[in-house]
Every structure is written in C-alpha cells, then in structure tokens.
Amino acid sequence: MTTAGIRCMLMRGGTSKGAYFLASELPDDPAERDELLLRVMGSPDVRQIDGLGGAHPLTSKVGVVSPSPEPEADVDYLFLQVVPDQPLVTDRQTCGNILAGVGPFAIERGLVAAHDGVTPVRIRLLNPTISFVTAHVPTPGGAVEYDGDTLMSGVPFPAAAIPLDFLGDGAPAFPTGHLVDRLGGEDVTCVDAGMPVVLIPAAALGLRGDESPAELEADEPLRARLERIRLDAGHAMGLGDVSDTTVPKLSIVSPARDGGLATTRTFIPHRVHEAIGVLGAVSVAVGCLTPGTVGSVADAGEGPYRIEHPTGAFEVGLELQGSGAATGVRSSTLVRTARRIMDGTVWPRAAHDERI
Ligand code: NQM
Predict the structure, then answer these.
(1) Is the CB of 58 under 6 A from ligand 1?
(2) Which of 35, 40, 49 has the alpha carbon at shortest distance from 21?
(3) pLDDT digits (tens, 9 = 90+) for 49-86
(4) Which atom of ligand 1 is nearest to the CA of 97?
(5) ipTM, 2 decimals?
(6) How far is the CA of 1 from the centre of ligand 1 (A)?
(7) Is the CB–ligand 1 distance for residue 195 below 6 Å?
(8) If you ran DSSP here, which 8-state letter would residue 150 be given?
(9) Against a cut of 0.90, is the pTM above it?
C-alpha cells in the first residue's frame, strides 16, 4: 500500500535548502516523525536517491512550524537535521539558514497575516534551547515577495532581503568557563552563541587557513585530529558524547584576507561548509571579539563584522555584554534571503527496512 502523501514546501533558506512542514501535518510522536522524515529525504543513503535530500547536510534539512502558544512569538520553529548517510535525525542544533524561510512559510500557510509592505514574524526557536528572533518578510500588497536584488555570498542568484533580529539573553557564550582550553592536544576556544563551535587556529594544524573545502575534506589525518578535538570539546562544553551528533562545529580560523574579523573554514562537523552557518558565524564573531581567545582580533571596530569563508563573507551586527568568559550576546542582526522552490505533496518511500 502506498504511504500517504504529506503537504510540504521545499525552500532555499539562506545557503541551505530544506523541506518545511506544519507540525500539525506530521506525526506527533518524535520517533515516528523522524522515521517518516528519513523516508521523505531518502536517508540513509549517501546519494539520497529515493527522496528529497540533496546528498549533503546543507540540503538535507527540515523546518517544522506551528502556531506559538508563547505570547511573545507568532510561530514556533523546530529544526531537524536529517543526516544523509545515516539513519539519524537530530534536533541537537538549530539552523539560522533554514530559519530564513520560516517567516515566508508561516505567511504562506496562513499562520501569520501579511501586511502591505513588510510583515514582522516573531519566531520562537525551540532547539537546542529556546530563543527568539523577528524576521522582517517583504510582503508588498499582502503577499510574500521572494524576488529582489540582495545577493548573499554562497548563493549565486539575488532575492528579496529578509532581515533577522535575534534577541540574545546575554548568557555567557563560553560554556567551558574558559577562553582557551587544551583539547585533543591543541589550544582551542569553545564558544556557543546559538551554535556550539570550537575555534582552532589554522597554524596549529599546519594549515594556511584558506584551503578549499575539497582539500580539507580529502585530508584524512586532519579529519581524525579534528574529530579527537571535537569529542573532547563535546564533554568540555557539557554536550556529552557527541560522536553521533552534528555539534559542536569546528571553525579553523586564521587572519582575515579581506578586511573581515577572520578567515574561516568550518567543519559541520564532517563535511566542510561552502560558506558558514548563521549562528555559527555569530558564535565565531563573539569568539573573535572577545579578548583572550585563540581568535581574538584587536581593534575590530564598531561592526557590522564580516566573517570570511570559502565563498565570500558573512556580515553580522552584534551587541555584546559582560566580559571575559562571561561575555554574552545582547542582540544580533543579519540579512538572509529565502525562496519558495516547490509547494505540494511529498510521497515518502514505504515503511520497511529492506535495502539492496
Ligand atoms: O549555524 C550549517 C547552515 C548551517 C547551520 C551547519 C546554520 C547556523 O549553514 O545557524 O545555519 O552548521 O550545520 O545551514
């Protein structure tokens, strides 16, 4: 018997691509939901040939949206990473790129009424910890406008800008309580301003810091060394055993080449990002702006700050509070674009485990 179809919108959110669902149209039970999403995306399979997934972590993502019971938010957003080649769906991280599509999706599905002009959509991020963001969605004439002239590095085509304002809680962004930790035999900085990231100086790894993602992914001894650091960092950051999850990320940092705060190459955590994640970039920026870390930048100026990456730079406005390891984020602002690619019914493969 054919498995029932599910209403789904495929969107590019920032530099990622994912399937967006209303929570009410997915199973309530998380285990049942995740098993269904594996079948929707075509996992586990390195090519995801039998589903919507694009055979890379950045194109194997899911956004689940629902009306928010919280008076300070219009909608709730749960992010799920569907691992392409493993039978694994994880809610241990959020995704600021898929977040860029949440406002448009909420309006398209009638969860938020659009104004003529720009519609603010107040979003509560559910994972890994609760936080709030307002997305300013262009809605001329009361309908979402996707087309525009904003170019984002990592996306070759322009689209309409969606400014995102994050409300920080000011909580300390250095979860080990130190600005530098010796982990996996290296001096690193563990920072979490919405995405847990370990900053590792390129020079300590014998790298320049501007190697291509393909070059870095092909370097097996480097990957083994990084995984040792990551597993140690998981414990040091209070994340426990991270061998089967997607956090923390690892950002190899070196001096900026083009006037930014730093050059980055980011393992997410096994593939190398062609750019950098949104909250990943915010975390790196906090690490660079705090004196005493392995990535500290003297005289960074007022911002917005640019985090350089393989396909350009990510610009982030940031207000910090506190000092030393107690430094936290008061607010951050950035601009993304998003685009509806397809809206319709997805048909998951049948629920049995037979694989050839
Ligand atoms: O850090 C990739 C992405 C991300 C996450 C990853 C992200 C973020 O580029 O907020 O956006 O690090 O897994 O979509």
Answers:
(1) yes
(2) 40
(3) 999 999 999 999 999 999 999 999 999 999 999 999 99
(4) 11
(5) 0.95
(6) 37
(7) yes
(8) B
(9) yes
